[in-house]
Amino acid sequence: MTEIKVNKDAPRQVVRMLVDNQPNVLARISSLFGRRNFNISTITASETHISGLTRITVVTGENDENVLHQIIAQTEKLEVVREIYLLDMKNSVYRELLLVKIRTDKNERSALHEIVDIYRGKIIDLSKNSMIVELTGSPEKLDGFMNMVSCYDIIEVCRTGITGIERGLAE
Amino acid sequence: MKMTGSQIIMEILLEQGVDTVFGYPGGAALNIYDTLYQYSDRIRHVLTAHEQGAAHAADGYARATGKTGVVFATSGPGATNLVTGIATAFMDSIPMVAITSNVANSLIGRDAFQEVYITGITMPITKHNFFVNKVEDLAHAVREAFRIAATGRKGPVLVDVTKDVSAALCEFEPKEAEHQVKMPTASDEEIQKIADMINQAERPAIYCGGGVPASDAGHELQELIHKADIPIAYTMMAVGIVGYNDTHSLGMIGMHGSVAANKAVDQADLVLALGTRFSDRVALNTEKFAQRATKVQVDIDESEINKNVIVDMSVLSDVKYFLEKLLPLVEEKKRTAWLEQVAEWRNASIAAQCPAAKMHPRDIIGAVCDMTDKETIYVTDVGQHQMWAAQFIKHRNTKVFLTSGGLGTMGFGYGAAIGAQVGCPDKRVIHFTGDASFHMNLNEACTAVSEELPIITVIMNNHVLGMVYQWQSSFYDRRYSATVPNRKTDFVKLAEGFGAKSFRAETPEEFKEAFAAALQEKGPVWIECIIDQEEKVLPMIPNGGTVEDIILN
């Protein structure tokens, strides 16, 4: 049986899978999660360097070992799934991208600029009364930034959800 | 060689050894049916009254023969009518390939006449499905469908083919059918460890399910229980796995299981769960199920491990392989004290069976078993009659009890019986049903008449929706909401209208007479048996309960 090592302290669990790049593949995964009542916090999908294969990264709030085993074992049964495992959070890097549009007037602009700099974000669009900030990092960093700017007038927020990859090469 | 999409489908059916399909034609399926006409000398098509009946027939055919069942349907309503049948097969892991037609590719997504997104609809109830809108992809999809349906834990696969694809020409290369069956198998260490556990156990019990007949491991299982003196409880999906009168048989386990089966698993110190999933109708209380035992689970599907009940040890393996390897390692042993205790429970179970009413279902089922041979295939619908059949059929063989276990599909029976009889023309097929279940799909009588299938349908008519009525009686203070329909159906006349024979029996003597006459008929026969509406299925363990909560009368 597949051993599942769950780091219970981690705020989230990241399930990584490699799936056939074909129509409906995302629907098959999300349909399974839906019908089994597995929680999805975020889901990302993109093509890989291997033709015909798509990488899907699902972040789930579940951290019970048996539930995670169910997620892996049930998903693995789908014909389109080539590989699936739980990302070892200690040994991986993971990132998320945030775009946020904030209403600003000329008085607020420099203070905001300072916060963006501290978080190593970028102002990628500027108009007379608004700016768009781009920020990548761990979800905690993004949360921290959002907390800092919450006193401003936030117009729109987009977050991509996490994607992640293990450090080094498997021995 | 250039062939049309429809020809490719037929060629692959032949390649896979398919000689029988069930189905219903329609506009989008015209090309496929036209080609079927040309292949009619090699592929028999059984036309049903309704696509649901065809799906259940393909399912019943698969259960009875062990081969993959095939069903055809047209687009839109044809495809949606298959849904209940596909879901039924999915829940019971029955190999089935459904080939649906869809509108032409140019019309897909435009809400065309009789268009439905059947691959989306069936995503959660198939092992996999294919939408084929390029003829070049067709051969691969159909071959894959057969491979997936019959590999590992079996199940239904759907292939949806657009109408233009069924007419389009494409190069076709014949191929031999793949008979690869790469099953997960237990390691020698795992098997040795379990053998040691069995050898050391004082009160071992086996609890087995549909995986045992599915892997054809009945013979090995019987050897094991006799060699090591282990009593065996089975789920409804494994009825017939051990002889009805075998002293090691505890009977069915679970909600309507026997006292002996539920008691033995509760008291055992080792429970070996084989090809089974601890469903909510068996492990009614997941915390307390087999609470005194070390629980060992052997299953082919990893996702069944620890899904419902957390076990102490699990092995991912085909059950037949596991048992073959286990047998020589298990000591020949007499567990006299344990078996005596089990026998006591067994006898108590039999004594607890309520006194016979004028016409008790047990007597009807008993008479049927006495008057038929051991190859007889019994098919049921769903409800009280199904539980009585599971409890009282004197089975002596595996693959003889076809029932909708997981989904509990009322209306499953007649279609499944048709499929079983078509697949096994030399065997006797008996269809047990209730008046409510039978009302759902009795239209398939026309199919049984057209195909001259000598299926005997035994209708247990209590004039109510029996199982729901029973629950309302026990748990809802006799508020019989929508379970007393006051139907005036005259089954004898109705059968005649279909061109079938029919009898009505109010006493066991009348029934035996009718059944003897039915056995002489060449076509379908119905026997309506009038039973008491207050008759209950017992014993019963309520949801969430244990054997301590068992209701005996």
Automatic annotation (TrEMBL), chain A:
Gene Ontology CC annotation, any one: cytosol
Reaction equation(s) it catalyzes: 2 pyruvate + H(+) = (2S)-2-acetolactate + CO2
UniProt entry keywords in alphabetical sequence: Amino-acid biosynthesis, Branched-chain amino acid biosynthesis, Transferase
Any one GO MF annotation of this record: acetolactate synthase regulator activity
Enzyme class, spelled out: transferase
EC number: 2.2.1.6
Domain of life: Bacteria
Protein name according to UniProt: Acetolactate synthase small subunit
Organism: Anaerotignum lactatifermentans DSM 14214
Taxonomy of the source species: Bacteria, Bacillati, Bacillota, Clostridia, Lachnospirales
TrEMBL record, chain B:
GO CC annotations on file: acetolactate synthase complex
Cofactor note as given: Binds 1 Mg(2+) ion per subunit. Binds 1 thiamine pyrophosphate per subunit.
GO molecular function: acetolactate synthase activity; flavin adenine dinucleotide binding; magnesium ion binding; thiamine pyrophosphate binding
Segments forming domain Thiamine pyrophosphate enzyme TPP-binding: 381-529
SUPFAM superfamilies registered for this protein in UniProt: DHS-like NAD/FAD-binding domain (SSF52467), Thiamin diphosphate-binding fold (THDP-binding) (SSF52518)
Location of the Thiamine pyrophosphate enzyme N-terminal TPP-binding domain: 3-116
Keyword list, A-Z: Amino-acid biosynthesis, Branched-chain amino acid biosynthesis, Magnesium, Metal-binding, Thiamine pyrophosphate, Transferase
Domain Thiamine pyrophosphate enzyme central: 191-326
Top-level lineage group: Bacteria
Cofactor: Mg(2+); thiamine diphosphate
InterPro entries: Acetolactate_synth_lsu (IPR012846), AHAS_TPP (IPR039368), DHS-like_NAD/FAD-binding_dom (IPR029035), THDP-binding (IPR029061), Thiamin_PyroP_enz_cen_dom (IPR012000), Thiamin_PyroP_enz_TPP-bd_dom (IPR012001), TPP-bd_CS (IPR000399), TPP_enz (IPR045229)
Gene Ontology annotations of biological process type: isoleucine biosynthetic process; L-valine biosynthetic process
E.C. number(s) listed in UniProt: 2.2.1.6
Biochemical pathway: Amino-acid biosynthesis; L-isoleucine biosynthesis; L-isoleucine from 2-oxobutanoate: step 1/4; Amino-acid biosynthesis; L-valine biosynthesis; L-valine from pyruvate: step 1/4
Catalytic reaction(s) noted: 2 pyruvate + H(+) = (2S)-2-acetolactate + CO2
Family: Belongs to the TPP enzyme family.
NCBIfam families (alphabetical): acolac_lg
Name recorded for this polypeptide: Acetolactate synthase
Biological source species: Anaerotignum lactatifermentans DSM 14214
